[in-house]
Backbone:
């Protein structure tokens, strides 16, 4: 059943990504995913073509924002690639009565309902309306709805201590395995290119099982750090000792030492220089071992 409101929405097309980011900034965790998408667009990491529609001045002051990434090619094992869009939607529950008319408005309809699309993100309470309108408009939503929850750090539950794993940034050698697990790999024809950009930009993280080799390496690195700290402390102590001995030598020489005292002074100075050389050499060895 179509919901008709007294003041039907009048979506406007917006091309200023910085303005969209500012619009999303105060909207909290509900807009976290779309905010991330817009940031990637601004940085040029996500370089797909896009169309963005907004509707402002809603009942609760929050906008409706719809992003359409255009020019994607979706395919699969059983059918050839076809032009498709990837869509994300932000809306609050208070503005849900406006959603159907927003999606059916001539401005949005001319872009959204021309080809099938994947619904990459939308609030769960909006999913039913989106799929029903798509059916009424003769369009197909290509993917199922998956639940995602975004929380602020203060809302996060206490994380259990994880043993046997380590978190590390991904690099290009991990892309084949990443593509084998990414749910869109089988339907997006340029999946490798889409994944490569964020990985090269350092926007990826993987959880790896710690092997015995990892554990041994971590132990070696820790022992190297501790040994280096110890040697630095010893070097500092040697430096203090050298200062004290220098003062003593100056005092002895000031009294007019005899030949025997002069030889003793030379021996002490040689010992100091020898100790300093040993410490420097040890520090160099530790640097090499811990790299």
Residues:
């Amino acid at each position: 059943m179509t919901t008709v409101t007294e003041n039907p929405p009048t979506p406007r097309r917006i091309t200023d990504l910085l303005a969209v980011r500012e619009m999303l900034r105060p909207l909290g965790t509900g807009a976290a995913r779309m905010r991330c998408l817009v940031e990637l667009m601004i940085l040029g990491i996500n370089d797909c073509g896009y169309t963005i529609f907004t509707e402002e001045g809603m009942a609760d002051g929050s906008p409706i924002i719809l992003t359409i990434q255009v020019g994607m090619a979706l395919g699969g094992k059983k059918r050839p690639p076809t032009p498709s869009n990837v869509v994300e939607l932000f809306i609050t529950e208070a503005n849900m009565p406006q959603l159907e008319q927003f999606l059916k408005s001539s401005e949005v309809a001319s872009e959204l309902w021309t080809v099938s699309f994947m619904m990459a993100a939308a609030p769960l309470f909006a999913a039913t309306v989106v799929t029903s309108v798509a059916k009424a408009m003769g369009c197909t939503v290509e993917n199922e709805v998956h639940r995602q929850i975004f929380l602020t750090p203060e809302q996060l539950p206490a994380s259990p201590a994880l043993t046997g794993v380590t978190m590390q940034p991904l690099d290009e050698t991990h892309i084949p395995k990443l593509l084998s697990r990414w749910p869109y790999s089988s339907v997006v024809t340029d999946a490798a290119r889409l994944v490569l950009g964020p990985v090269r930009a350092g926007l990826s993280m993987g959880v790896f099982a710690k092997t015995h080799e990892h554990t041994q390496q971590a132990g070696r690195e820790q022992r190297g750090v501790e040994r280096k700290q110890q040697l630095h402390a010893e070097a500092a102590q040697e430096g203090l000792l050298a200062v004290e001995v220098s003062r003593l030598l100056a005092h002895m020489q000031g009294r007019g030492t005899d030949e025997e005292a002069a030889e003793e002074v030379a021996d002490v100075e040689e010992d100091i220089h020898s100790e300093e050389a040993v410490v420097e050499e040890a520090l160099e060895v530790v640097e090499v071992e811990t790299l």
